[in-house]
Amino acid sequence: MAFFDPKNNTKTERHRTLYALYEIAFTTVDVSAALLFIVGSWLFFYPELEAPAIWCFLIGSICFAMKPTLRIVRELHYLALGDFDDVDKAAHG
């Protein structure tokens, strides 16, 4: 198994299930970040709501940072399912 190989998500039924669950997480993070940025932008029209607007942008930015983190965690999760021989072969030729 190689990291970020598109075939990783179809190796077994468990891989397919994990892929679907992580896709739900990615989509949830994307939608959350987008909504926070939209709300934050709207709040900036009102000077007295500047602090909540800043918080929306900060939390939205954290959501965007979660996506690559989730991708790495997914790949490590695939690795935890086994198939260590392929990883060793890829690493050592």
Describe the structure.
- The chain has 3 helices and no strands.
- By secondary structure, it is an all-alpha fold.
- The protein has one domain.
- Helix 1 (13-43) runs antiparallel to helix 2 (50-80).
- The longest helix has 31 residues, at 13-43.
- The radius of gyration is 19 Å and the shape is elongated.
Average pLDDT number: 87
How large, in whole angstroms, is the Cα Rg? 19 Å
Quaternary structure annotation: single chain
Provide the number of structural domains. Answer: 1
- Helix share of residues? over 70%
Q: Which band does the percent of strand residues land in?
A: under 5%
**H/E series, N to C?**
HHH
Number of discrete helical segments: 3
Provide the structure class. Answer: mainly alpha
Shape: elongated
Distance between the termini: 13 Å
Query: Strand count, sense and closure of the main sheet?
Result: none
Would you report the number of β strands?
A: 0
Low-confidence stretches: none
In short:
The chain contains three helices and no strands. It has 93 residues and is mostly helical.
Features:
93 residues; mainly alpha; 76% helix; elongated
Per-chain topology:
Elements: H1 13-43, H2 50-80, H3 84-92
Helix pairs in contact: 1-2
InterPro entries: YrhK_domain (IPR025424)
Organism: Rhodopseudomonas julia
Domain YrhK: 21-75
